[in-house]
Amino acid sequence: MTIKEELFARSEGKCELCSSQKSLDVYDVPSSSDGSADQSILICEVCKNFDVANENYFRCLSETMWTPIPLVQVMVWRQLNRLSDQAWARGLLEILYLEDDVLSWAKSEEPI
């Protein structure tokens, strides 16, 4: 099974950040990637090409942040951090609980 096939199975064919089923591709998460499915997420083009002007699109992170997958938690934290000038994103960051090692990982690299 290819990495992309593994990620499609894990994510049920949806972007692991916003649940979109369009334009999905493998994204190797910085500061972690060894090229494996355990170090990559399936992400859509909109999430990959993060645009602060499209901030309301990322309100979906309020659901994604509860994922049990640490790698996805890292990416949610990084995206919310980029949006931290928005009150709703700051609120989500305040209630997002990450284990110490996951939070350290999230802080180790700039967001996508």
Please explain how this structure is put together.
By secondary structure, this protein is mainly alpha-helical. It contains six helices and two strands, in the order H-E-E-H-H-H-H-H. It has one domain. Helices cover 42% and strands 9% of the residues. The chain has a two-stranded antiparallel sheet with strand order 1-2. Helix 4 packs across helix 6. The protein starts with a helix and ends in a 5-residue tail after the last helix. The model has no long low-confidence stretch (mean pLDDT 88).
What's a concise summary of this model?
The chain is mostly helical and 112 residues long. It is built from 6 helices and 2 strands.
Spatially, the strands of the biggest sheet line up as 1-2
Radius of gyration: 13 Å
Shape: globular
Q: Total strand count, please?
A: 2
Uncertain regions spanning at least 5 consecutive residues: none
Return the domain count: 1
Fraction in helix:
40-55%
The succession of helices and strands, N to C, reads: HEEHHHHH
Q: DSSP helix count?
A: 6
| Computed structural class | mainly alpha
Key attributes of the depicted protein:
112 residues, mainly alpha, two-stranded antiparallel ribbon, 42% helix, globular
Tell me the layout of helices and strands.
Elements: H1 3-11, E1 24-28, E2 40-44, H2 45-48, H3 61-64, H4 70-82, H5 87-95, H6 100-107
Antiparallel strand pairs: 1-2
Helix pairs in contact: 4-6
